[in-house]
């Protein structure tokens, strides 16, 4: 029997029904003040049930330790911990501030690179389970064949599933190969590859680079700050041009390469009358299967049997980005909204995989009826229900989890249910391939340049588009949540600077309305015209945080098509609210690729003048790019607009 839109609700692949259901004839942005008012209402519920929230924990943790914030605290051996000060300029072993700060920075990088790359490793393992009649299939065989040829693998006459298994094994070897460098770095322009070779930062086996970090920072090893920061760049490149790129590319092979798709964003996507399941984390292997199972007639019938009208899947953080760009699943929120979905009182289950998950979700869920379900041995947490998830038993595991959520619907405490009436329409799914497809429609004068980035290059040369900003990163309570992302994006659009975005930054844009195609009216005349011709929103959703690798591919192709060096392209990276180790690894590989990167939160490096100057200027001598940090977001935006204009001036365009 066919399932009607009403039965499914705003669920899964039925995103095409959104336009019929949502009256948004008058477009307007959702303001930060409106979002904060909704959050305040939810905090009243938290107070009523005695729940702990991040807002309360921030107050308890303030002020932060200045030794930690400046990076001069060392606890790498038990002779300390040592805290370097002007009166005590060296630790017990004799290491100075530069060595301590650089070692801490390298440890941070190792943590981030290992997390992103382990995500990629899990995707490569999942690829080995694909079969024509299995839970996972090859949905983009053309991409698989393209990567195989790129890696020198014979494809002619091979069964696509045999090829998938072969490529899975080769991809996993990238993590521990004894010789050579990462296969994907060959995608970079030859000039960039020569920089990496010259500076000794070509990424080798992914696990080797992380292990090297941990060895270098062991007591009695490296304390020379230049060597430590050089290894940080190398490890970042192993992430961005290795593990993360594998995660992105092979996810596309299995789950489909994203293409333009309509969805919705903000807490209002949750449905009072439906079973609400929220997926959270980063690994799409779990969330894809949850979505597949929940979209079945069997599960929807079970939801009706317990009194619900249907099932609504929504997402938080990068798991949300993964399923929204492939299935149109609505985005409930980004990092600092993960507690809010529980505070609505209407969340039957929040199902998590790995990374960026608050341990606080355990005790918080106990104040409501919500099931907090952990699924990975990498991310086990107190007061959760641990249900191990395996690619080999994916369908069975997902069915068990979805059924648990459905059964929990009847346990709602109706007096605690409040879903803020806030949501925005968003158009997502701009993979590198989709961007190229869209560029082909910019203007008829570019018909001889289809399938390349030349329409974009020509728009930049003509000044119709002044440049681009790759906006990425998390939320951070040190910055008023989402203010930096949304404020900077609006400034860039006004100045005809297009924004491409991933991760929590992408969700901030979606919640505000900046991914609605009607947001083109916020742009300058040039960018507005490009948005109209290409039929795109002015802020392009490129995916989750591992998908910053898509941005590297885009930058590389622009450089090849234009003849410019990557460092010359009027494009900047920006992470105004970053907070995690992964963000440090990302920043390292973006800068090492030649893209100047602007931050709104200081890295823990100001305790050493040498390291601080290296990160904020000296790196330019190595890789032609560096970091800039400015906590005043208005000033940061002005600096970035000026930097793009200087790059244009240097190119003579």
Care to describe what's here?
- This protein has 653 residues and is an alpha/beta fold.
- 48% of the residues lie in helices and 10% in strands.
- The chain is built from 26 helices and 16 strands.
- The strands form 4 sheets. A 6-stranded parallel sheet has the order 6-5-4-7-8-9. It has a 6-stranded parallel sheet with strand order 13-12-11-14-15-16, with helices on both faces. It has a two-stranded antiparallel sheet with strand order 1-2.
- Helix 12 (284-294) crosses helix 17.
Topology record:
Layout: H1 5-8, H2 18-21, H3 32-49, H4 54-61, H5 66-70, E1 73-74, E2 82-83, H6 97-127, H7 141-150, H8 160-173, H9 190-199, H10 206-216, H11 225-255, E3 261-265, E4 275-280, H12 284-294, H13 297-305, E5 311-316, H14 317-327, E6 331-333, H15 338-343, E7 349-352, H16 361-366, E8 371-374, E9 385-386, H17 394-408, E10 424-428, H18 432-439, H19 454-462, E11 467-471, H20 483-494, E12 497-502, H21 503-512, H22 525-534, E13 539-543, H23 548-562, E14 571-575, H24 581-592, E15 597-599, H25 609-623, E16 627-629, H26 633-651
Helix pairs in contact: 6-8, 6-10, 6-11, 6-24, 7-8, 7-11, 10-11, 11-23, 11-24, 12-14, 12-17, 20-26
């Amino acid at each position: 029997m066919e399932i009607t839109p009403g039965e499914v609700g705003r669920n899964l692949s039925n995103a095409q029904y959104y336009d019929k259901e949502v009256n948004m004839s008058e477009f307007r942005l959702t303001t930060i003040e409106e979002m904060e008012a909704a959050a305040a209402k939810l905090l009243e519920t938290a107070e009523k049930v005695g729940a702990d929230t991040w807002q309360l924990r921030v107050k308890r943790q303030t002020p932060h330790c200045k030794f930690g914030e400046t990076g001069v605290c060392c606890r790498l051996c038990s002779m300390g911990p040592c805290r370097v000060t002007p009166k005590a300029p060296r630790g017990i072993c004799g290491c100075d501030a530069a060595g301590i700060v650089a070692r801490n920075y390298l440890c941070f990088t190792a943590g981030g690179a290992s997390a992103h790359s382990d995500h990629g490793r899990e995707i490569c393992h999942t690829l080995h389970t694909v079969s024509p009649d299995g839970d996972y299939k090859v949905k983009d065989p053309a991409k698989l064949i393209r990567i195989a040829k790129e890696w020198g693998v014979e494809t002619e006459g091979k069964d696509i599933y045999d090829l998938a298994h072969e490529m899975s094994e080769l991809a996993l070897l990238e993590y521990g190969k004894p010789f050579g460098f990462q296969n994907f770095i060959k995608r970079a322009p030859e000039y960039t590859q020569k920089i990496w070779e010259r500076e000794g930062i070509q990424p080798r086996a992914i696990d080797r680079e992380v292990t090297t970090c941990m060895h270098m920072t062991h007591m009695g090893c490296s304390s020379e700050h230049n060597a430590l920061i050089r290894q940080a760049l190398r490890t970042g490149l192993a992430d961005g041009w290795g593990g993360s790129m594998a995660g992105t590319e092979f996810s596309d092979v299995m789950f489909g390469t994203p293409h333009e798709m309509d969805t919705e964003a903000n807490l209002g996507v949750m449905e009072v009358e439906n079973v609400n399941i929220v997926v959270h984390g980063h690994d799409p292997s779990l969330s894809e299967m949850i979505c597949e199972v929940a979209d079945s007639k069997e599960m929807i019938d079970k939801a009706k049997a317990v009194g619900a009208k249907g099932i609504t899947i929504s997402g938080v953080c990068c798991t949300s980005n993964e399923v929204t760009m492939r299935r149109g699943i609505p985005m409930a929120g980004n990092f600092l909204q993960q507690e809010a979905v529980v505070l609505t009182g209407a969340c039957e289950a929040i199902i998590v995989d790995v990374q960026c998950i608050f341990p606080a979700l355990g005790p918080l869920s106990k104040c409501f009826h919500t099931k907090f379900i952990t699924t990975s041995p990498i991310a086990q947490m107190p007061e959760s229900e641990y249900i191990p998830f395996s690619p080999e038993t994916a369908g069975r595991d997902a069915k068990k989890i979805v059924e648990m959520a459905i059964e929990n619907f009847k346990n709602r405490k109706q007096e605690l249910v409040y879903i803020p009436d806030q949501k925005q329409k968003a158009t997502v799914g701009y993979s590198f391939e989709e961007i190229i497809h869209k560029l082909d429609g910019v203007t008829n004068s570019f018909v001889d340049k289809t399938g390349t980035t030349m329409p974009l290059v020509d728009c930049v040369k003509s000044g119709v588009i002044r440049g681009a900003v790759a906006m990425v990163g998390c939320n951070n309570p040190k910055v008023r949540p989402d203010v930096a992302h949304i404020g900077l994006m609006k400034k860039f659009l006004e100045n005809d600077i297009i924004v491409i975005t991933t991760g929590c930054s992408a969700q901030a844009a979606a919640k505000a309305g900046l991914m609605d195609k009607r947001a083109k009216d916020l742009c300058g005349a040039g960018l507005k015209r490009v948005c109209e011709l290409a039929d795109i929103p002015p802020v392009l959703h490129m995916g989750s945080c591992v998908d910053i690798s898509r941005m590297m591919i885009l930058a590389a192709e622009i450089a090849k098509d234009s003849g410019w060096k990557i460092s010359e392209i009027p494009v900047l990276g920006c992470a105004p609210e970053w907070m995690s180790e992964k963000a440090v690894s990302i920043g390292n590989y973006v800068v090492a690729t030649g893209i100047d990167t602007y931050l709104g939160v200081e890295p823990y490096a100001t305790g050493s003048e040498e390291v601080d100057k290296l990160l904020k200027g000296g790196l330019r001598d190595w890789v032609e790019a560096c970091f800039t940090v400015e906590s005043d977001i208005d000033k940061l935006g002005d600096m970035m607009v000026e930097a793009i204009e200087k790059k244009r001036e240097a190119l003579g365009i």
